[in-house]
Amino acid sequence: MNKPFILSLSLMLLLICSSCNDEWTEEQFEKYISFKAPITSGGVSDIYIRYKEDEKTTFQLPLLVSGSTTNAQNRTVHITVDSDTLDVLNYERFQNREDFYYRELNSEYYTFPSDVEIKAGENTSLMPLDFTLKDIDMVEKWVLPLTIEENQSYVANPRKHYRKALLRINPFNDYSGTYSGTALKTVMEGNEGSTPIVKEEVESYVVDENTVFFYAGNIDEDRQDRRNYKVYATFDETGNGTGTVTLYTDNPDMNFQVNKEATYTITEQMDEVRPYLLHRYLTINNIDYEFSDYSMVSGVDINYKVSGSLILERQLNTQIPDEDQQIEW
């Protein structure tokens, strides 16, 4: 192989490599502005807010600048509430079952800045959402729908799940969440010898810092009149991870009666495989109450007895300081 050919080949390879390298110095994509709010199977993005009575709780919602290079300019992003998108989502998912609809979170429960700055040299920014959730009624499925407004200084991501954030509000306390219900039995009066009704999971919802509610017996969110069958549980700690649970209702038509005082225990255990992961188990024991389902059949009270226990497991990543982030929901 002669020297001129080798020289020519080397020059061509140098030009090709230089051309490839130049591609990485230039932007390959649009500088779209997006929320980081991935949706769940329910069509919304779940966020978890520590309940603190009258105190403010802040959730940081990320805003992103897409692209293959670093954002080179200051950008002021305009955010607003987007009721129309929530209306469309509700109708497409639930049609005429309005009792299933997500409800737009009342403005009394939140504040957020309408403008969020993303600085030059940074591809992300955090938008503070401040929540005060005292007296919120968790019978409803609350959603805060947000959208990025159009502006000449930036391009909002044209894909709806990036430009919009439908935030499902989930306030939590130490006792709320999804309990295992396999040890809780519901039997109809007069049929005590038959196979009991057992729910795999029992969902509980925040009322205040020490109280949750769940639906009586086999009633769940699918019932249109579920509001009438709330059973409240107030936790009173006696020490060393133990305490009593007071069960009651605010609906006298349920004929609610407690037959035994419920108690609870909290135990903790570190994960054997992931030593930074803490398993916390809350067990409610001695559940024993009766109630009447007075609306399933018009004019007829169907009486039930509920007994057994419930177990709530939380997995906490002890390496993460923020409580709402360390819980593996």
Please trace the helix and strand order, writing H or E for each element.
Answer: HEEEEHEEEEEEHEEEEEEEEEEEH
The computed structural class is mainly beta
Low-confidence stretches: none
Strand content: over 45%
CATH class of the largest domain: Mainly Beta
CATH superfamily label of the largest domain: Uncharacterised protein PF14274, DUF4361
Distance between the termini: 66 Å
Report the CATH architecture of the largest domain: Beta Barrel
Helix percent reads: 10-25%
Number of domains: 2
The whole-number mean of residue pLDDT values reads: 91
Shape: elongated
Topology-level CATH name of the largest domain? Lipocalin
**Radius of gyration, whole Å:** 27 Å
Number of helices: 4
Largest sheet: 10 strands, antiparallel
What is the number of strand segments? 21
Q: What's the topology here?
A:
Elements: H1 3-23, E1 32-35, E2 45-50, E3 57-65, E4 75-81, H2 83-94, E5 102-104, E6 110-111, E7 115-118, E8 124-131, E9 141-148, E10 155-156, H3 160-163, E11 164-172, E12 177-180, E13 184-188, E14 201-208, E15 211-215, E16 230-239, E17 242-248, E18 257-258, E19 262-270, E20 277-297, E21 300-317, H4 323-326
Parallel strand pairs: 1-10, 2-11, 5-9
Antiparallel strand pairs: 1-3, 3-8, 4-7, 4-9, 6-8, 9-11, 12-14, 13-21, 14-15, 15-16, 16-17, 17-19, 18-20, 19-20, 20-21
